[in-house]
Specification:
mainly alpha
Length: 116
């Protein structure tokens, strides 16, 4: 999938939230990259087990860390999954969580490229 890089990672907005501290942004991005795959795995496990509250909780956590680092498309996707979790529509939740994987990969690639 092709994504608009400005929707993937809003680096400048993230930097503004960190008062322009480049070193802090780099650390926050590194932490995000280290944590996001584990959170996604936890989300897929919750989906497999049809744990509605866990899907809501983990998608909310992904929304939060994505917002912190300026990963806007991922934040939006996580927010959608969080709202969907209340419906119990497991087929649609499955579709959205699978789609999230490509957003995560593209976001991480954008972040790595910017910090290379």
């Amino acid at each position: 999938m092709n994504f608009d890089s400005t929707s993937l990672w809003q680096r400048e907005k993230a930097l503004q939230r960190l008062a322009g501290n480049q070193a802090l942004l780099k650390r926050v991005v590194e932490m995000f990259i280290e944590q996001i795959d584990e959170k996604y795995l936890t989300l897929t496990t919750a989906l497999s087990n049809k744990e509605q509250e866990e899907v809501r909780f983990i998608s909310h956590a992904i929304k939060g860390i994505s917002g912190d680092v300026g990963a806007e498309l991922l934040r939006h996707k996580a927010s959608s999954i969080e709202m969907l979790s209340a419906t119990g529509d497991w087929d649609e939740i499955d579709v959205q969580i699978k789609a999230m994987a490509s957003v995560i990969d593209a976001t991480k690639s954008e972040m790595v490229a910017a910090h290379a």
